[in-house]
Automatic annotation (TrEMBL):
This is Amino acid decarboxylase. The keyword Lyase applies. Keywords: Decarboxylase, Lyase, Pyridoxal phosphate. Pfam families: Pyridoxal_deC (PF00282). Residues 480-502 are annotated as: Disordered. PANTHER family: GROUP II PYRIDOXAL-5-PHOSPHATE DECARBOXYLASE (PTHR11999), MIP05841P (PTHR11999:SF70).
Length: 502
């Protein structure tokens, strides 16, 4: 298994980014529960043949969809050793718990938080944000939310974030019982940063209407474009207004260790709470996120609970602080180990340089896009996220969406590259998020070449083909062909061809 694993990683560049699963593979996963034992070698063989070749592709150097890291071998070994070691990191007097605490201390120091700050490792950024926002809600509620619930509060709470805020915050406010309407989306400027004038007015309007403004969620690195809200200004505003200052740093917080770009997140250490993701720019395999809270006592006051079967003892295995006092889980895995091993093996300088490298690559790609008149940048490229589209001229927004969507899908089906798409201030675009330590500039050359080639062949195809319908449109409904350009998608069976069937 280990030999195959090493080979799998060594040869990642030679493989397609992704491929569609054949029907027999799909069917294999609807088999009933196994009743009799099967030799482990056979079990592994099924994994090797039916899972490994059909992965998402995010460890590939040309995977730039959504936003995720590419993992490392060390991280994988860390997960393996953590499972062998086997401790429950809910707490206890053992070395793994101390190691967990050390990792929190390291992250606190990387983010330049004071020693009085607390933190907890969680499964990802969504959970880290929920931790931060729960502490914020309880600290700012003006009543005892743990005892009375939000129904017991005399005023309804309000949270503020930009209209670019990650969707996990909506889930958070829904879970926290304050509801989606309590999350005020503040408009953004042309660089997709929160408009602070609009924020101030929104707060004033809410106060006048009898609401209780509680918390501003700043984003350091938005998912759409990588924009970074003005952290020092939002901090000052929160101080003036008496609000909690939470930062969603799932993308950008780790810029703090990047030698040439740390200035972009100056002020991050001023947050009352901070969420960051270690399975993104630290390249730790899934799952690993972290929440940091400036005042440990406020953090504990939100989550600590000690039933009679979970008391701390003066000696023995329970003679330590319980780590579940800082979050939602009771049992916790030893995810700290892969983070600890990654940080130790590479050191902050090298990990920081990898972040700089991805930003340089995004600038390189921006230059390629700018220098080709068939391509258009749709948002400014600040860090490692690039929004662009094939736009040879003469197409309206609906046609541009259709052709770029088809380019994106064909790139995936070819196994050439994985991009996602989004819509920024009303304009649809392809989105490249380079959070990948395996990416090289030549991969970006391939991307630009293929986007242009596919775009042009789709344009030519559209002139000679009779109206056709795009396959697999959202909700299974075919899109209506637009009047002047019909894009013929490639059929499923021609996935190997390099040229469009148009
Ligand atoms: C990825 C991301 C999240 C969610 O993090 P997960 O690790 O996927 O749960 C939240 N906010 C931002 C800005 C992100 O990029």
């Amino acid at each position: 298994m280990v030999d195959d694993a090493i080979e799998h990683l060594r040869e990642v560049r030679e493989r397609s980014v992704w491929r569609e699963m054949p029907p027999q593979v799909r069917e294999a996963f609807s088999a009933p529960p196994p009743v009799s034992p099967e030799p482990l070698g056979d079990v592994y063989g099924t994994f090797r043949d039916q899972v490994l070749p059909y992965s998402m592709g995010n460890i590939h150097p040309r995977f730039w969809m959504w936003y995720m890291g590419a993992g490392t071998f060390t991280g994988a070994v860390g997960d393996f050793l953590a499972a062998i070691e086997g401790s429950n990191l809910g707490g206890g007097n053992h070395a793994a718990a101390l190691l967990d605490g050390q990792v929190i201390g390291w992250i606190r120091s990387m983010m330049e938080f004071p020693e009085t700050a607390s933190g907890t490792l969680v499964d990802g950024g969504s959970k880290a944000n929920i931790i931060g926002l729960t502490v914020a809600r309880n600290a700012m509620a003006g009543g005892d939310v743990r005892e009375e619930g939000i129904a017991g509060l005399s005023q309804q709470l309000r949270f503020y974030a930009s209209d670019q805020v990650h969707s996990c915050h909506q889930k958070a406010v829904e879970l926290l019982g304050v509801g989606n309407r309590a999350l005020v989306r503040v408009p953004t400027d042309s660089e997709c940063r929160m408009d602070l004038g609009a924020l101030r007015s929104a707060i004033a309007v809410d106060r006048a209407a009898g609401f209780r403004p509680a918390c501003v969620i700043a984003t350091a690195g938005t998912t759409n474009t990588g924009a970074i809200d003005d952290l020092p200004a939002i901090k000052a505003l929160c101080r003036d207004e008496g609000l909690w200052f939470h930062i969603d740093g799932c993308i950008g917080a780790l810029l703090a260790i990047a030698p040439r770009h740390r200035h972009l997140v100056a002020g991050i250490s001023e947050a009352d709470s901070l969420a960051l993701d270690l399975h993104k720019w630290l390249h730790v395999p899934f799952e690993a996120g972290c929440a940091i809270v400036r005042e440990a006592s406020v953090h504990r006051a939100t989550f600590a609970l000690h039933p009679e079967y979970l008391e701390e003892k003066p000696r023995g295995i329970a003679a330590a602080e319980y780590l579940f006092d800082y979050g939602l889980q009771t049992s916790r895995g030893f995810r700290a180990l892969k983070v600890w091993m990654t940080l130790k093996e590479h050191g902050l300088n090298r990990l920081g340089r990898l972040i700089d490298q991805n930003i340089d690559q995004a600038q390189y790609l921006s230059d390629l896009v700018r220098s080709d008149e068939r391509l258009e940048l749709v948002a400014p490229t600040l860090i490692n996220i690039l929004c662009f589209r094939f736009n040879p001229g003469g197409l309206d927004e609906a046609q541009l969406r259709e052709i770029n969507n088809e380019i994106m899908l064909q790139l995936q089906e070819d196994g050439t590259a994985a991009l996602s798409d989004t819509t920024v201030h009303g304009r649809h675009c392809l989105r490249v998020a380079i959070c990948n330590h395996r990416t090289r500039r030549e991969d970006l050359d391939v991307l630009v070449r293929e986007v242009v080639r596919l775009g042009e062949s789709l344009m030519i195809g559209s002139l000679i083909e009779m109206p056709l319908y795009t396959r697999r449109a959202v909700g299974g409904q075919a899109l209506q062909p637009s009047p002047t350009i019909q894009i013929k998608p490639r059929s499923r069976t021609s996935g190997k061809e390099r040229t469009s069937s148009c």
